[in-house]
What we know:
single chain; about 300 residues; alpha/beta; Rossmann fold; four-stranded parallel beta sheet; two-stranded parallel ribbon; about 45% helix
Amino acid sequence: APNVHNVAIDGTFDDCQALVKAMFADLPLRDSLNLAAVNSINWARIMVQTVYYAYAALALGSPARPVSFAVPTGNFGNVYSGYVAARLGLPIRNLLVATNANDILARFFTGAGYRKSEVIASISPSMDIQVASNFERLLFELHDRNGAEIRAMIESLDTGGGFDVAPEKIQAARRQFSARRVDDARALACMAETWQNCGVLIDPHSAAGLAAAEDAKSDDDEEKHQTPVICLATAHPAKFPDAVERATGVRPALPAALADLLGRSEHVTQLPNDVAAVKEFVRDSAASHYEGKVA
């Protein structure tokens, strides 16, 4: 469509997200272009995702029966929706945060502070994130909605690479959350086991959640073991055919409606990791689209 522009940035997911946040912080730009986000920066996305937590839990006997969820996690939006569902009253015993090698969240929930490092490329690229924007929302709740305190933490993350959280706050988080790190080798093994045992192909992100749930069986928590665990799948396996084929020997086919996708023309604009360049592109694209039209 002429009003859709695909932009590739020379950088990581964290770089892209920082650019988006910088543009939203530019109030004249935001207001003049009516900027809106459709990812989990937008609270509406969080609200909508709470629905399938409730739907899945009800299918397994809630509210009379508590359930747990294993959630492949990068930006913390999906699993935060589960937290919101729990706050609304859904009986969720545990939210298992499954990360890949970019394990800043897994390290936090095991008590190692919140410190970013270099992004590691993995077979689950949507989880290759070191700065999870929705994690700020959980910190906000843990610190009694003290915005100034959270702002100082995020500034420490930007300037010093991380921060510590009081032990009682981490303990409070652990009452709802646990976390596990699933590296590429473990995810590939899980994909292979799922195909061999169930005849189902899963993508590497979904495999991280499933592997984390399997590995959590070793935890010494009898109540947790008696609670059914719902693993959230996050993508069609054909979106990551190389990883799926590497794990299973089977190359997943695209859905029929997208069978000719790889033969279609690709439309992408490459931009530097520079907020001024991105702002200019957005302004020019908007001006071109609305030129000659009545507002």
